[in-house]
Amino acid sequence: MLHKDDVKTQAADRAFVSRALSAPYLDAQEEAALARRWRDHGDQRALHRLVEAHTRLAQAVARRFRHYGLPMSDLIQEANIGLLEGAQRYDPERGVRFSTYAAWWIRAAVQDYVLRNWSIVRTGTTSAQKALFFNFRRLRAEAEAQAQGPLTDAGRETIATKLGVRVADVSAMEARLSANDRSLDAAFVGEEGPGRTWGDMLADERATPEEEALERGAARARSACLAQAMDKLPAREQEIVRARHLAEEGHALTLEALGARLGISKERVRQLEAKALEKLTQFVRTCAGGRGVQAAAA
Fold this sequence. Notes:
Layout: H1 7-22, H2 28-41, H3 44-52, H4 55-63, H5 72-89, H6 98-117, H7 127-147, H8 153-163, H9 167-177, H10 209-231, H11 235-245, H12 255-262, H13 266-286, H14 294-297
């Protein structure tokens, strides 16, 4: 859904645009002189003059992103922030015109704003995803024009190749751009009857009380079976299993460290470990009716 500013905001935007269009252009020499005055002496007037002369550039870049449904006033504001960032970092000695340098900062600022505000779901967290987000509509239009119909699998592959992303990423972005955010408090229209919201239709994936009770019983049975199986192992095999599989996270010993403790080679430790796990697996398969306790031994 496209955003539409109120009357006062539109009037303020028109006044701002008018002032920006009336600002005189700068030639290369004047531009460089203003940049040096700001860089070397912190001259605020020079900075203001440099930025004012390029405000129309910021507005032009901001208008390219108006179809994302965000307030035009906010897009212009973000573009001006990018313009100021470019002015802060501009070095006239590099021989590049300020408009060329600042355009990159303006576009980056606006793109970041669009990605942060286009949806409540975070979009475009990597450079490849950002490129896909901002180029998908254009490339899809080209592919559909070539196919003379809706986007096909071949078209998706072409887009993925051009942008260096996976076809799955293209399909995910296609679905993402075709859907709008929906409030979970919005009314649900369907066979469930009036007064229901979309939040009411979300499935509760938590276990039921009965399932939780059964799982607690099964967990106790698994623990008992594992304890019995461990008691049947020789002492050295018990030590290997405990040091390798039952130690606290991050404290499990390596084969080499365990071999040094036991006075045997790490290969022998590996053989004893495999033998012990096989014994545990065979025992727990029959213990407590075989209720999945082999997973506890692994």
